[in-house]
Amino acid sequence: MNIHRTVLVYTILGCCFSSGLSQVSNAYFDEHRAKADSLSEVYGIPVCVILGVGYHESAGGSSAVAQKLNNHFGLAGNCREDISHHKSRYRYYPTVVDSFNGFCEWVACRSFYPEMKGTAGDLSWLQKIRSAGYASDGNWANSVHKIIVKHCIEEK
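Above: the chain's sequence. Below: its structure in token form.
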């Protein structure tokens, strides 16, 4: 009888915990949707690619790099230790919006960009971004794509 009660408690806790994670994920996508929409218009990068990469790389905006350096994309560079008071290999951005701009500029400077600009196909974009040196993990594109499928709806 006790084992059934224990299983029931863990099942309920698991459902509550996963529901909370989903709400946090959706909050990230909601919070950053407008800036991603405008950047998608300018750069021709799918909104969900921008949001999915930002979410994945910043742990939904909660990572130390996101919090201390306003860097949601894990881009390397000058951390501006004099301003951020944080020593890191990652770049400091004055605002989160600047981080989103920085990611789109990074993508726009890559050789694959002209052929992909304005196209759909989130997974294709993610594979090209990974192959351009953004991520070394061979499963990175699939991991980000799973986040996109679960949390991002492409609005037309």
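The CA atoms of residues 41 and 83 lie 31 Å apart.
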